[in-house]
Automatic annotation (TrEMBL):
It comes from bioreactor metagenome. GO terms for molecular function: DNA binding; DNA strand exchange activity. Residues 32-174 form the Recombinase domain. This is Recombinase domain-containing protein. It holds the Pfam family Recombinase.
Length: 393
């Protein structure tokens, strides 16, 4: 009887949580980094409010992952989770745990829809299984979880969050069993526009290599690999020409970019930290004279503070150089275009499929392939949509 009553009460609690979730209320425990959990006024339940300093770090993470960091030559270098973690540590930003950033923490934040104003529940449900006669509790990721709109304000835009999910899903390595080499220059880059599966290379004994959708129920028609490869290169050239025309005709808006604002705040934060360190170094002599520190402890503390001061000064100098480059590039948007022409010309001179695949992944997120009518390139309805890696303003 008690077990049945417990299950009944638990079902009621779960229905209450689901009802609150549909209303957009935050039903989890601790708030994610960048938010604080607050009580809703004059009603039951909780929601989230933005913590400005932490939210700035969240926006910085998404900006580095989605848009990349502009270099002195005008190109935008993409950052992975490991590079972002190192960058945050160098800028003196503390992790949610108060220590160093880990790549897995950055990855989980990028995948969290809460930052786009959504709520998720049962993302990692608790599942009990019997393994070798023992009850084991695991928390597998629920891929079928659907996010619900929340009452809390978003930290990043929906467009940036969706773009981050596309980039994260596209950052896969072609499976190569047995130490084989990449034979498809488009491996991991071309996806079926109908079913979303990654297109595969099929080698025939007599004839050309073909690119086809592996789904047996998909009506997408295959094409010769070299035709698709040539079509992607042509599409990139056309896209680059159109982008140059739009960039040259656009008038400057005078709007300060998010990168400039973040770098200015980083310099201000690092300068404040430097002032604190210098004040601590001045107090060391007083502690030595008062007998609180022995000469050995004094030397050790001076050495530690000197290293921290040097590290902070280097971080400030690096941030100032980045700020100058960012301001220069913001004044001339077309200069932010990467050297696509040089990369495309270099591509034609490469010999191995692996070299071509690595080079294409530097300038292309993905390409979507659509074809439902047979025939060669000029006779079919083949269409290719390319998504280049470039930061637009």
């Amino acid at each position: 009887m008690s077990r049945r009553e417990y299950k009944t009460i638990n079902r009621r609690l779960q229905r209450g949580r689901e009802a609150s979730l549909r209303e957009g209320k935050y039903i989890a425990g601790a708030a994610p980094y960048g938010y604080a959990r607050v009580k809703l006024p004059r009603q039951k339940g909780y929601t989230l409010e933005i913590v400005p300093e932490e939210a700035e770090a969240v926006r910085h993470i998404f900006s580095l992952f989605v848009h990349g960091e502009r270099q002195n030559d005008g190109s935008a270098r993409q950052h992975g989770t490991f590079a972002i973690a190192k960058r945050l540590d160098a800028e003196g930003i503390c992790s949610p745990a108060g220590g160093k950033w880990q790549p897995c923490t950055v990855r989980d934040m990028i995948l969290n829809p809460t930052y786009a104003g959504m709520l998720r529940w049962s993302y990692r449900p608790t599942v009990r299984r019997m393994i070798d006669g023992e009850r084991v509790t695991v928390r597998p990721v629920n891929r079928g979880m659907e996010a619900k709109p929340g009452l809390h304000p978003p930290i990043v835009s929906q467009a940036d969050w969706e773009e981050a999910q596309k980039i994260m899903a596209g950052r896969t390595h072609p499976p190569l069993p047995g130490g084989r080499q990449v034979q498809n220059p488009l491996a991991g880059l071309v996806f079926c526009a109908l079913c979303g599966r990654s297109m595969e290379r099929r080698k025939y004994r007599h004839g050309r290599d073909m690119l086809l959708c592996p789904s047996k129920d998909c009506p997408t028609v295959s094409s010769a690999l070299e035709d698709v490869e040539r079509g992607i290169l042509d599409a990139l050239r056309c896209w680059l020409a159109e982008y140059r025309i739009e960039s040259s005709s656009a008038s400057p808006s005078g709007k300060v970019s998010d990168g400039v604002l973040h770098l200015e705040r980083s310099i201000s934060r690092l300068s404040s930290a430097l002032c604190v360190l210098q004040a601590q170094r001045g107090q060391l002599h007083d502690l030595l004279e008062q007998g609180v520190y022995s000469p050995e402890v004094f030397k050790e503390r001076v050495s530690v503070l000197a290293a921290k001061i040097t590290e902070t000064e280097q971080a400030i100098e690096g941030a100032r150089l980045q700020l100058q480059a960012e301001q220069t590039l913001c004044s001339n948007p077309i200069a932010s275009l990467p050297e696509f022409e040089g990369i495309l010309e270099l591509y034609l001179g490469l010999q191995t499929p692996k070299e071509k695949n690595d080079l294409l992944k530097k300038i292309l997120y993905r390409a979507e392939y659509a074809k439902t009518t047979g025939g060669r390139w000029g006779q079919s309805d083949l269409s290719l949509a390319v998504f280049p890696k470039i930061r637009t303003f």
